[in-house]
Amino acid sequence: EHSKQSLYEELNMYSSVKNVIGVVSGKGGVGKSFVTSMLAVLLSRKGYNIGILDADITGPSIPKMFGITKKAKGNELGIIPEHTHNNIQVMSVNLLLEQEDDPVIWRGPILANTVKQFWTEVYWGELDYLLIDMPPGTGDVPLTVFQSIPLDGIVIVTSPQDLVSMIVKKAYNMAKMMNISVLGLVENMSYVKCPDCGKEINLFGKSKSEEISKEIGVDILGRIPIDPVIAQLVDKGEFERFDCDCLADAAKQIENIFAK
Ligand code: ADP
User: Fold this and answer.
1) Alpha carbon 19 to its chain's center
2) How far apart are CA 45 and CA 43, in angstroms?
3) Which terminus of the chain has a lower count of CB atoms within 10 Å, N or C?
4) Cα–Cα distance measured from residue 39 to residue 50, given in angstroms and rounded to the nearest whole number
5) 3.40.50.300, 3.40.630.10, 3.30.460.10, 3.40.50.1000: CATH of 15-259
6) pTM
7) Which residues line the pocket of ligand 1, CB cutoff 6 A?
8) Residue ranges covered by each domain of the chain
9) How far away, in angstroms, is 234 Cα from ligand 1 center?
10) What is the pLDDT of residues 98-145, one digit of tens each?
11) Which helix (H) or strand (E) holds 158?
12) Nearest alpha carbon, ligand 1 atom 23
């Protein structure tokens, strides 16, 4: 707790952030950015001031999802984040690169240092929630990020195939080792809904999420179907317009946890 306090003190001095939530996954491509953004939008629709810190430096996808093309600028307050149409503050390495498709070929310590600066140098203003799209996996970079930003809790994103392996438990154990509370699991791409009859089809067989959640003693915050309509919104940079209540309960649970 003591070190968390000191990390909080390193925040950009003109900003105040009430709650910091990390979104993690055992590996890339399971929808970590998707879930980060969906939670951000749902909490923002409830009237909270929200920021997204894109800590997935080598695979930054947040700006594109929201159609943000402008670059971040700096002034005497710090680095000024960009914002979505509905005023979610966003900071990502993509807002600093000349070309969006420039590869980030930095080594681990530089990656971690950049993320740290997104905490210490960015003028976030007053936020109720800062959501962090964490680097995937349990390697060196995510570990350093865990140690450099005061996380109040994490959400673990999994795909159905993920649940079969030990990946989820690894992510869970890493959080535990760092004394960070696990808010719950989100199972992404867990089914598709038939557009004609509405029937839910489990593409990967019966879900294992309940089994795992019992085993590690963590709640399931929600299950998200593969949704081609939202996938198209992502491609158009219009993610914020999604219409899906699949994480509404998750947002409510998060609200309740931090209201205490
Ligand atoms: P990660 O951050 O874990 O690497 P992303 O969130 O970038 O993964 O998701 C990978 C790709 O899959 C993206 O193009 C994203 O829009 C798409 N995607 C993720 N979840 C869903 C979903 N539930 N329905 C449709 N497309 C999805």
Assistant:
1) 13
2) 5
3) C
4) 10
5) 3.40.50.300
6) 0.95
7) 25, 28-34, 59, 61, 136, 188-189, 224, 226-227, 230-231, 234
8) 15-259
9) 9
10) 777 777 777 777 888 899 999 999 999 999 999 999 998 888 888 888
11) strand 153-158
12) 226
